[in-house]
Structures are given as C-alpha cells and as structure tokens.
Amino acid sequence: MNCPMCGNEMKFGKIGARAGAGLFWLPDEEKVKFIVSNNIIEKHNGIVLVDCNEWQISHTAYVCEGCRKVIIDY
Ligand SMILES: [Zn+2]
Questions:
Q1: I want to staple 49 with a disulfide (CB 3.0 to 4.6 A). Which of 23, 35, 39, 60 is the partner?
Q2: How far is ligand 1, taken at its centre, from the CA of residue 74, in Å?
Q3: Helix %, strand %, coil % for the chain, to 5?
Q4: pTM of the model as a whole
Q5: How far apart are the C-alpha atoms of 71 and 7, rounded to whole Å?
C-alpha cells in the first residue's frame, strides 16, 4: 500500500495495545472521562480498534515513518 500523504510504499505490520488498555478512536467533537468501557466509546460514536480483552495482536496495519501516519484494519 502506498502512503496517501507522500506516495511512498508503507511498511506492513500489526497494531496492538499494552497492559490491557485497548485502543479506540473518537470523533473530534466527542469526549469521554475516566473509565472508558466499550459501551461508553460506542455511545459517543467511537470505534474500538483493539479491545482491552484481546490477548493476540491481530489487527494488520500499514505505517509511513516519514509522515508518521498509520492505516489500521480493525
Ligand atoms: Zn508518507
């Protein structure tokens, strides 16, 4: 896959999270406080990218180190 910013070939790999904290995306206008469960993330129109209960790193991702951009499959 080529980087949508610079056009260079992106490196292929996997994305994960440490210490069972998971990884999520939120729309810019949304905010969550303190304990962030999957339900709260989804209630705020967010997307759970890596569930906090996942033990395996299974989400493939492409990275452009030059632009510091990551494209994640979730
Ligand atoms: Zn790039």
A1: 23
A2: 21
A3: 10, 30, 60
A4: 0.74
A5: 13
Quote the ligand 1 centre to 73 CA distance (angstroms): 18
Beta strands in the chain (DSSP E): 11-15, 23-25, 47-50, 59-64, 69-72
Residue ranges of domains in the chain: 1-16+57-74, 22-50
Q: Distance from the CA of 62 to the center of ligand 1, in angstroms?
A: 10
